[in-house]
Amino acid sequence: MARKVFISFLGGTNYRYCDYQKNDKSYGNVRFVQEATLNYLDVNNNWEETDVAMILLTKVAKDSNWVDNGQKDKLGNTICDEQTQSTLEGLESRLQQFKIDKQIVDELPEGNNESEIWEVFERVFDKINEGDHLYFDITHGFRYLPMLVMVLCNYSKFLKKITVESITYGNFEVARKLGHGLIVDLLPLTKLQDWTYAAGQYLDSGSVEKLAILCNDETKLVLRESLGKDEGARNLKNFVSKLSSVVEERRACRGIDIIQSKSLKGLKDAADILEESTFIKPFNPIFEKIKKSLVSFDENENIRNGLSAAVWCYDNGLYQQSATILQEFVVSFFCLRHQIEIADEEKRELVNKAFNIRANNTDEKNWIAKDEQKTKIREILGDDYFANEKLIAYFQNLTEVRNDFNHSGMRSKRAPMKPANIKENIKKCICGFAVLLFNIKIEK
User: Fold this and answer.
1) Count of domains in the chain?
2) Does the chain have fewer CB atoms within 10 Å around its N or its C terminus?
3) Separation in Å, CA 292 to CA 227, 286, 295
4) What sign results for the dihedral spanned by CA atoms 242, 244, 247, 248?
5) pTM of this prediction exceeds 0.85
């Protein structure tokens, strides 16, 4: 079972008492912010004995603040507790009130050089288990330590599938103005990192899985608490759902859906609504990046969406899908020019036959087709486009690429294409068809 793990740094300073509050509720007038934070997390009611409070200590911190009566004045005399005028309890004693496992990672180096920083990183990482739920307190994480926490979070998410549930900071300084300290929630900062990473995955590779998981996690609690009425959360969830549908159409080569563009229209409508009520404000610039990735697609039914989808797949490393969609888009282009239903598989084959006949200069007496089919093939061959040798060459080249893909390069009569050649051939075909059919120049 995954543990809940509280991880906090402890320094060597003689900390003063402070009433730490969050949302106008006090969590203790204490010397150690760790007490207040554990109260804020409601550890005694919501955590198990097997869950952990992990305190990170240098030797100075251990001698000064972990043990009782660790603070000394300049003459080496023990300093008493300012409130009780008796034993100055260390954090070890103060944590006894919490019914969870207490662990220390002690004798940590000060982090004065790269080697020491890496040692701190590795020792903390080694204490984290697969699937742990982490709660960080970085109040006394001075110098490089807050950065270490952020990197450690992302590193552990990837390698140990942990979840970061909380990152808090106890603001002592505001007590001079407010009369009490504040427990500040810094988790939104790491959430923004997660959104940035997930959006980057989509923009770089077309992968929408991380966005979908993150969106579900972010909106689930909000929608549950609002009984499904939170408009911002609903809009974000709808947008990511529509984006997932559009991506899956391209990945799965759903040609008719791509051309008809119903899902894309739904996505653009969802984007317009989301723009007016963004759930997470810092997400706005990221959302704009995603929105710009849709501009080459027409939300109305348009044969050019096939070309745009082929380009999108190529740009996102989906080369087999790119080749498949591109060739079927070309066939659909000629189907529409010659009144052939694009979903009619038998009649679509007439366009393919026309290309093969033109490429091989096949005499009509050798055509393998019925009489009524031959009439349509002649019509297609009479199309002005079919006089262009480049068009025929691109189509045949793409046929070879698809055959090589479909047979995994295992064909006895032809050597398998090298991956670099496959990519280059698809790229040439995309650019060639764009110019020949639509007079569009695609920069690559």
Assistant:
1) 3
2) N
3) 33, 10, 6
4) negative
5) no
248-299 residue pLDDT tens: 999 999 999 999 999 999 998 888 887 766 566 667 777 888 888 888 888 8
β partners of residue 102: 53
Q: Which domain holds residue 208?
A: 187-302
Do 443 and 345 lie in one domain? The reply is yes
Strand partners, 166: 135
Q: Does the residue 283 lie in any domain?
A: yes
- Residues 6 or more apart whose Cβ sits within 8 Å of residue 246: 263, 264, 267
Q: H helices then E strands: how many in the chain?
A: 19, 8
Per the document, the length of the chain is 444
Q: Give the residue carrying structure tokens 């180096």.
A: 109
In a domain, 403, yes or no: yes
Residue among 129, 159, 178 nearest 4 (CA): 129
Q: Same structural domain for residues 210 and 328?
A: no
Query: 271 — alpha (psi -120 to 50), left (phi > 0) or beta?
Result: alpha
- Domain-terminating residue out of 302, 334, 354: 302
Residue the block writes with tokens 């990183």: 121
DSSP collapsed to 3 states, 401-419 = HHHHHHCCCCECCECCCCH
CA-based torsion, 407, 412, 418, 423: positive or negative: negative
End-to-end Cα separation, the chain, in angstroms: 50
Contacting residues for 382 by C-beta, under 8 A, at least 6 apart: none
How many other C-beta atoms are found inside a 10 Å radius of the C-beta of residue 275? 14
The answer to whether the CB of 417 falls within 8 A of the CB of 401 is yes
| b/e map 218-255, b = 16+ CB within 10 Å | bbeebbeeeeeebebbbbbbbbbbbbbbbbebbeebbb
Token pair recorded at residue 157: 């998410």
Is 240 inside any structural domain? yes
Contact of 354 with 386, CB cutoff 8 Å: yes
- Name the token pair of 19: 């009433």
Whether residue 148 sits in one domain with residue 137: yes
Q: What are the tokens at 63? A: 């001698």
Structure tokens at 398: 């793409």
pLDDT tens per residue across span 380-427: 999 999 999 999 999 999 999 999 999 999 987 888 899 999 999 999
